[in-house]
Write a structure and sequence with these properties.
Rossmann fold, single chain, 5-stranded mixed β-barrel, 8 helices, 9 strands, alpha/beta
Length: about 290
């Protein structure tokens, strides 16, 4: 019986936490050799928002599957490559798409790229997503600045064996987003004439969309938008020491809990792409003035 116990494979999460630091360093070294000058900011582009990376000047493209240990996205609207180039006078590392836990990844795996950003000495991060608007005053196509988060995925990407080289085990989350960047984004939106909302974003596991009862509950809890990403990335960014994080949601459907309102992934992608010109204009101006 004891032999069987010792031969039993360790859970994947345990193995992941045991080797995370070395894996992050390996991935960072791989990218450092290819990306040229040091990036000023990292941008994670959510569903339907990947085309923004095409704005980068003199781009260097690296598919996720070539980067050691990098999670590979399997979802439509997530192209799956790192692109490094110039944008609005800054050097930007953009991720065209992300991995999600509903694809079978652990929270630690989906947030692996954020740890790589920090290993590359990137101290500013813009994280974006497509989300359902719960607040009834929102409209499809609105851009929402995320000022707080709620983890309805119920698993922290930090769980497991601790490693002080990755950051403190108990990071403070009282200010997950940079107040300076939120204020800058509001100023840029006003100057560009872009309608902006601001609110709390909740992450669920997916891949199914929420039931009317779940959405009504979220509304009562003060949640403004819901999606299937972002929250774990922000938690890891805070632990890892990324100094400033900005979050922007594109409202791609109205998730108000009315039974007659339906949604499909195709509609989400289409709405995100329709909002992309305003989204790109806003993010470029914010990055320029960071």
């Amino acid at each position: 019986m004891l032999c069987c116990l010792f031969l039993t494979p360790l859970p994947p999460l345990y193995l992941m936490t045991m080797k995370t630091y070395d894996s992050v360093q390996e991935a960072a070294a791989f990218l450092r050799e290819r990306m040229g000058d040091q990036p000023d900011v990292a941008v994670i582009l959510g569903s339907g928002l990947g085309p923004m990376a095409d704005e980068l000047e003199q781009p260097i493209r690296v598919p996720y599957e070539q980067i050691p240990h990098f999670p590979v996205s399997t979802v439509e609207g997530h192209s799956g490559q790192v692109i490094v180039g110039g944008l609005a006078g800054k050097r930007v590392l953009a991720m065209q798409g992300r991995a999600h836990i509903y694809e079978g990844y652990t929270p630690a795996q989906t947030t692996f790229p954020v740890r790589v950003f920090r290993a590359l000495d990137i101290l500013r991060m813009v994280v974006t997503n497509a989300s359902g608007g719960i607040t009834r005053t929102f409209a499809i196509g609105d851009l929402m600045i995320i000022d707080d988060i709620l983890n309805f995925q119920f698993l922290s990407p930090l769980r497991g064996e601790t490693d002080d080289r990755l950051g403190p085990r108990f990071p403070d989350m009282s200010a997950p987003f940079s107040k300076r960047l939120i204020g800058l984004t509001e100023t840029c939106g006003a100057e560009l004439g872009i309608r902006l909302q601001k609110g709390t974003y909740a992450a669920v596991t997916g891949p199914n969309y929420e039931t009317p009862a779940e959405l009504r509950m979220m509304n009562r809890l003060g949640i403004d938008a819901v999606g299937m990403s972002t929250v774990a990335e922000v938690i890891v960014a805070r632990q890892a020491g990324i100094e400033e994080v900005l979050g922007i949601s594109v409202i791609t459907d109205m998730a108000t809990g009315e039974p007659n309102l339906t949604v499909s992934h195709e509609e989400v992608i289409a709405a995100a792409r329709a909002a992309e010109p305003r989204f790109v204009k806003l993010v470029k101006e914010v990055i320029h003035r960071m």
